[in-house]
Design a protein that fits this description.
The complex is a heterodimer of chains A (208) and B (330). Chain A is mainly alpha-helical. Helices cover 69% and strands 0% of the residues of chain A. The two termini of chain A are 13 Å apart. Chain B has a 6-stranded mixed beta sheet, with helices on both faces. In chain B, strands 10-9-8-13-11-12 form a 6-stranded mixed beta sheet. A 3-stranded antiparallel beta sheet of chain B has the order 4-14-15, covered by helices on one side. Classes of the chains: A mainly alpha (208), B alpha/beta (330).
Chain lengths: 208, 330
């Protein structure tokens, strides 16, 4: 993981999220209030715009700037959760040394763990954690393998299955929880956007 | 979408700037990070009250900054929680050393961002969470009830206590008491349109209403055909009374709140219907508030809040207040 990797991933994710924005907006309007997609899009735009400011910085500093930008520029649950994610990644030790696959997995795992603590949500509550926590567990299994590409294909599959599984769940966290039974039958918008992000990044790592 | 708007990115900034100019005798607007604060510095020893939340509920919360109510308000984007740096900057700006009480409506995003703001602020602080919406079942398995219109009452009543030298603990305790003694339920006839979305948040037929709607256009208990005002008001009050169970002889404040698109004539009609129904049930109404205080952009509809009052609450309700949106006694 490097600063240029982060920038190029942010650009790819931005493209994919923009392509799927109408779908995510509709999902959020069904069970939320419709702000999720705008928050994610605003956050990605802010991060992509950081390119000139961070491209020559050490990784820890760049992650920290991304964290503060996400935290102060997005708002809503997404801002707090993704801000927490990047802030935790920035606090990882030994970022001045080479960040290999194993180290990158550890950073992502601890980032997701801190998101879970911030949002106090667990698997089965119809939130983005339904996608992120199983992905984090899989990365934990994969991180020491020398040949990780097949594993990343599994990560893609897990993210998709778990995203789809939110459809029949009752929500117990977030704004959809106010709906009770009426939240059933709709995929959680946060689970969908998280799955798209994971899908995009895994495919890019596999193809490089 | 038909709105007074120049471009989406500047929508909030332009509105806040105008708000600051229109009420420059009471408040200052700070941009980047955005917060509204009183024109005068918080006096030494006075606890500072800070609230905030997504924009689109005006006059909540910026309109409640001023003597007898809030010290600062942090506006997020439309319907999105504000960010932790706003809360931190507002707290640093207003705290006179007596501490800061954050008043937060019960939504995941607001709670997370206020929690982070409180962690980032080095001064003494505490928080209360409002959750007065009886449309949502309260249960340990959910995020719980939504914080809606009673937040206005909490801010007014705790604001008075803070003005009268209440400590941080006392302010928190009173705020929690008011929240617990209040129940709210709303109904919407039309949707609202978030500027960034450009189209209505939900579709609703000409002859339909959303019963138990949230203040962001979130669906409520059920979708129904519209009915005469008395029937709607009766159903809302039934849900509230079920929940609050006021005692005979207890004094109550009746608050009819417009969602933004319903004229005052209708809100007063709702108030009259509510008074009659409450009287027939032996529920005494001694205080009133009618108007657009906790809105959902241009949504047509109204919410009704009932607050069971004791002497302490009544005293602080009547105390002078001087803000952009609420003014009496001075």
């Amino acid at each position: 993981m490097s600063v240029s990797f982060l920038i190029s991933q942010a650009k790819s994710v931005q493209k994919v999220i923009d392509e799927n924005s109408a779908e995510i907006e509709v999902l959020d309007q069904k069970i939320g209030d419709g702000d999720h997609i705008f928050n994610i899009q605003r956050g990605l735009k802010l991060v992509v715009e950081l390119e000139d400011a961070i491209k020559d910085l050490p990784l820890a500093k760049a992650l920290n700037m991304i964290a503060m930008k996400v935290l102060s520029g997005i708002g809503g649950s997404s801002g707090a959760l993704f801000g927490t994610f990047f802030m935790t990644m920035a606090k990882s030790s030994d970022l001045d040394k080479d960040v290999d696959f194993n180290k990158a997995c550890e950073m992502i795992i601890s980032g997701i763990k801190s998101m879970k603590e911030r949002g106090k949500a667990d698997v089965g509550e119809k939130t983005m954690m339904d996608v992120l926590l199983p992905v984090s567990e899989k990365l934990n299994e994969l991180k020491n393998e020398s040949e990780f590409k097949p594993g990343l294909n599994e990560v893609i599959k897990i993210a998709e299955e778990r995203m789809l599984s939110t459809k029949d769940m009752l929500a117990t966290k977030g704004r959809a929880s106010f709906l009770g039974e009426r939240a059933k039958g709709h995929i959680d918008p946060g689970a969908r956007s998280s799955q798209l992000i994971i899908d995009t990044i895994c495919k890019s790592v596999i193809n490089n | 979408m038909k709105k007074f708007i120049n471009n989406n990115d500047d929508f909030l900034k332009e509105s806040l700037t105008g708000f600051g100019k229109a009420h420059s005798d009471i408040i200052n607007v700070n941009l980047d990070p955005s917060f509204v604060s009183r024109k005068n510095k918080t006096k030494d020893g006075k606890v500072s009250l800070i609230s905030g939340g997504g924009s689109g509920h005006e006059p909540m919360h910026g309109g409640f900054v001023g003597h007898g109510m809030l010290d600062a308000a942090c506006p997020g984007f439309v319907f999105s929680a504000p960010t932790p740096d706003q809360m931190q900057a507002a707290a640093e700006h207003v705290d006179s050393g007596a501490g800061v009480l954050f008043i937060v409506k019960n939504y995941s995003g607001d709670i997370m961002n206020f929690e982070m703001g409180a962690e980032m602020y080095s001064g003494k602080n505490d928080s209360i969470i409002t959750n007065d919406d009886v449309a949502v079942e309260d249960s340990t398995f959910t995020t719980g009830r939504r914080g809606v219109a009673a937040t206005v009452l909490v801010e007014k009543i705790v604001g008075s206590l803070a003005e009268h030298s209440g400590s941080l603990d006392e302010c928190k305790k009173l705020g929690e008491k008011v929240n617990k003694k209040a129940g709210t339920m709303g109904v919407a006839f039309t949707s609202c349109t978030v500027p960034a979305a450009g189209k209505p948040t939900f579709n609703i037929g000409n002859d339909e209403m959303e019963f138990g709607v949230g203040i962001h256009g979130e669906p409520g208990r059920k979708r129904e055909k519209i009915q005469p005002s008395k029937t709607i008001v009766g159903n809302i009050l039934e849900a509230i009374l079920d929940n609050l169970k006021p005692e005979k002889n207890e004094k109550n404040l009746l608050f009819v709140n417009g969602m933004g698109g319903t004229p005052l004539t209708e809100l007063y009609l709702v108030y009259e219907d509510a008074c009659q129904i409450l009287q027939s049930k032996g529920v005494e109404v001694t205080k009133s508030l009618v108007g657009n205080y906790c809105t959902s952009l241009e949504m047509q509809g109204a919410s009704i809040t009932l607050l069971k009052c004791d002497d302490e609450i009544l005293k602080h309700w009547d105390a002078p207040v001087h803000t952009a949106a609420m003014r009496w006694g001075m």
